[in-house]
Design goal:
310 residues; five-stranded parallel beta sheet; 13 helices; 9 strands
C-alpha cells in the first residue's frame, strides 16, 4: 500500500497530510517537521513510511533509545541531502544532550559540530540543506516542551472504530488469501481493543489455527473454539487483564490498591500496567481510579462471574 486513500482510519489527519504532501511535491519543498503521537499499534510508523513513499524522498530511520551520544547523530546530520526525511521513532527516549543539538538543526538548518577535547576543542557550524524531521512517540508527556514546540505539525492518533478495524481485517484477509465469514470478522473486530496491531495479530493466529485443523472457512464456531484455547475473552481481554482484575477483586474491601502494590503482586512493570493494561479497562469502566488507588467496578465483577474467572 502506497496511497493515502488506502489508509484506514485517522481520516482528518490523512486529508491534511495529503494536502501538505501535494504542496511539497508541487513546489519542491520539505514537509513541515511532523510529530505523530498515540498508543502503540495504531499505525504511526506505517503512516510515516507512507509519507516518505508519496514524497519519493529518502527516509533515514532512527530509534530514539539508540540516540544517546553526540556521535550517534553527527554522521546522520552531516550527510543528509536536500529534502531528506529523518524519522526518529519513540523520540521521547533520546538523550537530552542530543535533543538540544536538534533545536538549531530544526529551527535554523544549522548544526554545531564539536571537534577535539579540552583546550584543543573547537566548534564548526555546518549549514544543513532543507530537510524534514518526522517523529513518532507513544509517550508525548515524556517529551520536553521545547522539543515538542519544534514540530510545526502535531498529529494525535484517535482510537479506531469497530468498522475501521473491520475494514483493516478484511484487507488483511485478502492479502493472506484466507476465508472468513462476515460474522467471524465482526467478532474479531470487537475483540481487538480498537487497536489495528492487536486485530491483525489475533487474525494471524486464527489463520495458523485454521491451517493446523484444516479449516477451509472460519466461521463463528471455529473462531469461538480458537478464542477459548487462546484465552481471549469478551472485549479482547486476555490473561494479564484477567489477572489484574482478580487482584482488584481481592482488594475491593480496602477501597483501592496502589500502583506499586499492583506492580509487586502481578510482577509487571509499573509502566506496563499504566500504559498497556489499564487504558482499555478504564475505557470499558471495568476499573476506576480513586484517591486510594485502583478500584474494581460492579461491571468487572459481573464480567468475571459470567466467564467463571473468579
Amino acid at each position: 500500500m502506497n496511497n493515502f486513500d488506502d489508509f484506514v482510519g485517522q481520516q482528518r489527519n490523512i486529508f491534511l497530510l495529503k494536502v501538505l504532501v501535494s504542496n511539497c511535491l508541487k513546489n519542491s519543498l520539505p514537509l513541515k517537521h511532523t510529530l505523530i503521537s498515540g498508543p502503540p499499534g495504531t499505525g504511526k510508523t506505517f503512516l510515516i513510511r507512507l509519507i516518505a513513499q508519496n514524497l519519493e524522498r529518502p527516509l533515514i530511520r532512527l530509534q530514539g533509545n539508540n540516540l544517546q551520544r553526540v556521535d550517534d547523530i553527527n554522521s546522520i546530520l552531516m550527510n543528509i541531502k536536500e529534502n531528506s526525511i529523518i524519522f526518529i521513532d519513540e523520540i521521547h527516549a533520546i538523550n537530552p544532550n542530543i535533543e538540544e543539538l536538534l533545536y538549531s538543526a530544526m529551527d535554523e538548518k544549522m548544526y554545531s559540530l564539536f571537534l577535539g577535547q579540552g583546550s584543543n576543542s573547537k566548534i564548526i557550524n555546518l549549514e544543513l540543506p532543507p530537510f524534514s524531521m518526522l517523529a513518532a512517540t507513544t509517550k508525548i508527556t515524556q517529551m520536553s516542551k521545547p522539543l515538542v514546540s519544534r514540530f510545526s505539525l502535531k498529529i494525535y492518533f484517535d482510537n479506531y472504530k469497530d468498522d475501521e478495524i473491520r475494514d483493516i481485517l478484511t484487507n488483511k484477509i485478502n492479502v493472506l488469501k484466507c476465508s472468513f465469514t462476515k460474522k467471524a470478522i465482526d467478532i474479531l473486530a470487537t475483540i481487538s481493543k480498537n487497536n489495528p496491531r492487536i486485530a491483525i495479530n489475533t487474525l494471524e493466529k486464527m489463520v495458523e489455527f485454521a491451517n493446523y485443523y484444516n479449516i477451509e472457512k472460519v466461521g463463528k464456531q471455529e473462531l469461538k473454539k480458537f478464542l477459548e484455547k487462546a484465552c481471549i475473552y469478551k472485549y479482547g481481554l486476555c490473561a494479564e487483564d484477567i489477572n489484574y482484575l482478580k487482584v482488584l477483586k481481592n482488594y475491593r474491601q480496602s477501597e483501592g490498591i496502589g500502583i506499586q502494590s499492583l506492580s509487586t503482586i502481578l510482577n509487571y512493570e509499573r509502566s506496563h500496567i499504566e500504559e498497556i493494561i489499564e487504558p482499555f479497562l478504564l475505557k470499558k469502566k471495568l476499573v476506576l481510579l480513586s484517591k486510594r488507588g485502583r478500584v474494581i467496578t460492579t461491571e468487572a465483577l459481573k464480567y468475571l462471574d459470567d466467564y467463571s474467572l473468579n
